[in-house]
Amino acid sequence: MAPAQKIVPHSVAAISSALASDKASFPWLEDDLKVIEAERTMTRFEEEALQTFLIDKFEKLAAETPKNIFLIFEDNLFSYELVDQMACRVANIAKSWGLGPNDCVAMMMHNEPAFIWTFLGLQKLGIAVALINYNLRMRPLVHSILATDPKYLIVGAGDDLLDAVREVTHDLGDLKVYVQGLGLLQAPVGVQSFDPLMLTTLPLAVSPDVRKDLAMNDMFCYIYTSGTTGLPKPALITQRRAISIGSRTVLVGLSKSDIIYTVLPLYHSAGGGLGLYGAIVTGAKLVLKKKFSASQFWSDCRRYEVTFIQYIGELFRYLLAQPESSLDGVHKIRVAFGNGLRKDIWLEVDKRFKIPMIAEFFSSTEGTGMTVNFSNKPGAVGRLSPLLSKLNSDSIVLVKFDYATALPLRGKHGLCITVNVGEPGLFLTKIPEVLLRDGEFIAYRGPREASEKKVVRNVVEEGDMYFNFGDVLTLDKDYFLYFQDRIGDTFRWKGENVSTTEVANVITAVEFVHDANVYGVEVPGNEGRAGMVALTLNEGYVLGPKELKTLYDHVCEELPTYARPLFIRHLDEAIVTGTFKQQKFELMNQGFDLTKVTDPLYFLDTEKKTYSPLTTNDLPKFLASRL
Description:
Elements: H1 12-20, H2 29-49, H3 54-64, E1 69-73, E2 76-79, H4 80-96, E3 104-108, H5 113-124, E4 128-131, H6 138-146, E5 152-155, H7 159-166, E6 176-179, E7 192-193, H8 195-200, E8 219-225, E9 233-238, H9 239-247, E10 259-262, H10 269-282, E11 285-288, H11 297-303, E12 308-312, H12 313-320, E13 335-339, H13 343-353, E14 357-362, E15 371-372, E16 380-383, H14 386-391, E17 396-399, E18 401-402, E19 407-408, E20 425-430, E21 436-437, E22 440-441, H15 448-452, E23 455-457, E24 465-475, E25 480-486, E26 490-493, E27 496-499, H16 500-507, E28 513-521, E29 530-537, H17 545-558, E30 567-570, H18 585-590, E31 601-605, E32 610-613, H19 618-625
Parallel strand pairs: 1-11, 3-4, 3-5, 4-8, 5-6, 6-7, 10-11, 10-12, 12-13, 13-14, 29-30
Antiparallel strand pairs: 1-2, 8-9, 14-15, 16-25, 17-20, 18-19, 20-24, 21-22, 23-24, 24-25, 26-27, 28-29, 30-31, 31-32
Helix pairs in contact: 1-2, 4-5, 9-10
C-alpha cells in the first residue's frame, strides 16, 4: 500500500461551493465531497507525520505518556514504557551483534507482544526487517528468508515455527538463527535461544543519533507478496511508505481516542501496516489477537470497548456463520476498515452487526494508490467520478486490456484506452516522482524485471508512468468502483495471494507429474478463487489411489493451507497456446463444473487425507464444508 490519491487543495472549496448550490444537477456531489474532505484531512496529517520516522513517533509517545496503555493481548496490558523497555533490550542485543542502519534481520513470529517489541527494537537501530509469513514451509520459506540477505533470523515462540525452521536450517547456510520461547531450555542443534539474551541485556535507551544518517527512502521493512510470478517477493517498504501506510487510517478518522482490534497477521500490510503503524502514527490503542476466532470476536470487541476493526472478506463470512445473538449489534465499533467484503453478504453484515461505517478499500502492498468507499455503498471499493479524476490529475484510471496477456490495449496514438461505465478495466495508478529511484520505480528487492513488469508507460500522456495492479474493476453509472477479478498468474484465497507459479513448481516436483497448470476458480459462497490444477503425467504413470495420496501428502507438506489446490483435473495432454504458453482462460471458465468437464476431477479430501474423485454426490457436501 502506498500514497492514496491526492486531492489538490486549491480551488476545491470554490468548486464544492458552486456544486453544492445545485445537488439536483449533481446527485453524486455528496459522495465526492466525502472523498475530498477525507483526502484533505489525511494529506495534512501525512505531511506532518513525514517529518520524523515511525520509530521516532513511538519513542515520543513512550516519553510523553509512558504509563498509557499501548497494547492489549490476552487480557494483559502493556504500557508504552514496558514495550519501549523490551524494545531497548532487543536493540542492544542487535547492537552487540554489530548491526546498524540498513542492515537486515528476518523475523518469523506469530501475532504477540514480542513481535512488536522485537520489530521496534530493530527499528531503533535503523535495521530493515524482513517479515516472514509464518505459514511458509520448505522451499518457499528458505527463499523468503534468503531473499533479503539478512544477517540474522529471529523466530518467535511456538513449536510449529521451531519445527519449520529446523527443517530448513541446512539450507540457510551460515545464517545465525535465534529462537524465542525456549526459556532456559537448551536450544536444538542449528539454532540458538534468544531468551537468555533478553534476560541479561539491560533496557538502556538507544540514542536516536544512531539513525541520523537514515533517509525517508531508506528501508523500513520488507513485506512479501506473491505478485504475478514465482516465489514470494519482498516488496520494499521504505520509511516514507511505512508512515504513508499508517496514515491511511486517518482517512476513516482514526485518532488517539480509538481502540483498534487486529486479528490479521502483523507480517501483512493490513495487520502490520494499517493496524500497528496506524496505532503508532495516531496514538490509538491496539488490541492484538494471536489468530482470528469467530466465536470470540464480538465478546472481545465488547470487553475491550473496541471502536475500530480490520477485516478481510472471509472474516465477516465466518462471523455470519456463528449463531445469531441479541448482542451481535451491541458494541462501540464506529468503523470497519478492510477489503474483500462481497456485495452478496454486505447487507446481511450491515443489518446484523450494525457497524455505522464499513469502509471498503482497494490497494496493494506495493501499489501506488488507494481508493476507499466512504459512502457505505454495498460492494463498492471507492469512487472515480469526473470531478475526482480532474482534481487528482488522472492519478487513477481504468483501461481496456487483453485478457490473454493481461496487458493494456493501446489506441491509435499509442496511449491506453479508458473504459466506459460498466466495462471491465485494468486498474492503474500513477507513480509519483517521490517514489522513483534514479528515475526507476523499484517495487521489489531482487531482479529489476519483477518491478518493471508492474510499470505501464505512456498511459494518459507521453512519458507518464503508472503501476499495474493486475486487477480488473468496473465503474457504475454513479461512479462507484467495484472489484471484479484478478488476472495474470496470481489469485486470492482466504485473504492470501497465491502464486500459480509457486504452486506449480511444488507440484511438478512430484516424480510422476509431467506438467501442472495452476489457476483459481470461483467457489460459491466464498471470497476469491480456490486453487485448481490441471495435471498431465509422465509416460507410464496413472493417477491411481497411490499417486493421489502422494500428491495430497506433498502439497500438505510443502504448501500453506490457503495455497493447496482444492481441485485436480487430470488431462491426457497439456492445453497450450500457439506460443507454447499454458492456456488458463478456458480451464478457469470450466472450473470444476461436472457438466462441462469430461476429464477426471478430484477434490482435496481432508477426511480421507487424499485427493478423492469428485462426483455429483460429493460436490454439495464438499462445497458446504468450504463455508
